[in-house]
Specification:
heterodimer, A: alpha+beta, two-stranded antiparallel ribbon, B: alpha+beta, 3-stranded antiparallel β-sheet, 4 helices, elongated
Amino acid sequence: MGYSYQPSNGVSRGLLIVWDSNYVQVWSITRFPHVLIIRGQVLQNSQEFFIVNVYAPCDSVMTQVLWDQLLHFVVNIGEGNICLCGDFNST
Amino acid sequence: MDERRGRGTFLHQHDSYIFNKFIEDGYFVDLPICGRLFTWYRGDGYSMSRLDRFLLSSTWCETWPNCIQFANQRGLSDHVPLVLYEGEDNWGPRPFRMLKCWDELPSYEQYVCDKWGSYIIDGWGAFVLKEKLKLLKGSLRE
């Protein structure tokens, strides 16, 4: 088993990703405010993936900055298995 | 479908706009939500919202084409657990099938009646029916 986290600020904004090392291998972890990203591969089929764990702020100006950062990150990857997940604080 | 219910909806229109633009600009796949419509509930019982979700790249959807986003039962948190299932095993209960020709076997009807009566299952009606069909499927296979 492996894990990676961003500490919480009080009772909120913590981020945690846990994985089963029998199924996936994780080789890099990236953190920026409100985001925790792991990159790895599924051992069974060698598919590479990115899991992008998001805890968006409530403030509109800050969320706009976050969306821009995430788009920048995704565009840099190009074609990849990317899964963004979490609390986007938006609908 | 409105993803937010409660008070002060008007104030959120701009936020919704920039979030939807983010989803479009990133070419993300926003899967429909199964299980329930909202992922967050305020204690007042009036406000609820779909704050949590999975957004997938189109490549992800080509690699794993059978993903389902499922919102589970509420626990102690004001958010509900949201699960992304992958694979063909999560299409719900498999259908019960019979071949019409089985009915032509003289012993078929009696066999089904005997077996049906022999299963003892407790629970609410639909559960008993589902479990009995499952057991019957196993018996017929034998």
